Each structure stands twice: as C-alpha cells, then as structure tokens.
Amino acid sequence: MPEVWIRLNTADRRRNWWWTGWLTLVCAGTSVAVSLVEPEENHWWWAGGCAIVWLAAVVYMINRGYGRTLLTAQGMAFRTFFSRRRLPWVEIVRVERRSHTARSSEWWDMRVVLVGGRALAVPGAFTSRRHDHDFERKLALIEDYLCRAAAGEEAKPRSTPRH
C-alpha cells in the first residue's frame, strides 16, 4: 500500500485562520469591554482570564489546522504541531465520523477507536460543511487501509494478477 497523507487543503486552512482571527477579535473585544465596565482593581483579572482562554483556543486552532495523518501499510502516524504518535493497524478497531452541534454551528471530525475503547481524533480530518466530498474521501481511504490491513494485505502490492 502506498503512503498517503491526510491533511486540510489550502482553502480549509485559510478558513481555519479566519475563524482564529474572529476568535481573537471576540476575546479582545470582551477584554476591552470588561476593562471599561469593571473597577480598575478587578479588570486585570478579567483581561488575564480572557487572555488565557484566547491562548488555549488559538493553540487548539493552530494544532487542528496544521495536523496531518500519514497512512502506511503498518499503521497511522499522527503529526500535529505539538505531538507525534504512531498507531499500528492491529490496535485500531474502527474509524467513525462524529458530529458536534453548538448553538449556531455544526461540524464533523473523524475518530479512530482503539482496542481498549479509547477514541482519538484523526489530525487533518474535520469539516463544517454538510456534504464535504473531501471529508468523505478521507474517511473511505482510512477505512480501506484498515480493511486491507485486517485482511493481511499490508505486504502485498495491489496489482493485477498475471495469467
């Protein structure tokens, strides 16, 4: 099986940066509004709290936007901005699509469920569009690699047999 990268395309990364910018504006606006309304001895606590929430959210957004997954015959390799992890196919039970709903938005991501029941997010595989063909292609690709590994095809190249 050839090695294949799963990652966000340029447009999706740009969209992720726009959301990060919007989040930055919301946190900055909240900090300014609170510092104008609160007494001077309390507004530093509020500004500091907003800064901590903003920093955690920006780190999450960057990690999510630049994360990627390498599919190989041996397993999956997760690469994010802050971590690296290898998962052999024998440790993966299934791949599932998960939906998340907030007040005004909805998004989907992929998780691999391990033998012990723990689910890990697949870096480079999330969307906020309902019928995202690229997301569905990534899911089908991971499922194909998982099925082929379960069938013991990791060492065999995929070619037509000679007669």
Write the layout of secondary structure elements.
Elements: E1 4-7, H1 10-37, H2 40-66, E2 68-71, E3 75-79, E4 84-88, E5 92-101, E6 106-114, E7 119-127, H3 133-150
Antiparallel strand pairs: 1-2, 2-3, 3-4, 5-6, 6-7
Characterization of the model:
By secondary structure, the protein is an alpha+beta fold. It contains 3 helices and 7 strands, in the order E-H-H-E-E-E-E-E-E-H. It has helices at 10-37, 40-66, 133-150; strands spanning 4-7, 68-71, 75-79, 84-88, 92-101, 106-114, 119-127. Strands 1-2-3-4 form a 4-stranded antiparallel sheet, with helices on one face. The chain has a 3-stranded antiparallel sheet with strand order 5-6-7, with helices on both faces. A hairpin with a 3-residue loop joins strand 2 (68-71) and strand 3. Helix 1 (10-37) runs antiparallel to helix 2 (40-66). It is elongated and about 65 Å long. Mean pLDDT is 84; it is low at 155-163.
| Strands, count | 7
Structural class by helix and strand composition: alpha+beta
Oligomer: single chain
User: What shape does the CA trace take?
Assistant: elongated
- In which order are the strands of the major sheet placed? 1-2-3-4
* Beta-strand percentage range: 25-35%
The major beta sheet can be summarized as:
4 strands, antiparallel
Count helical runs: 3
Gyration radius over CA = 21 Å
Strand/helix succession: EHHEEEEEEH
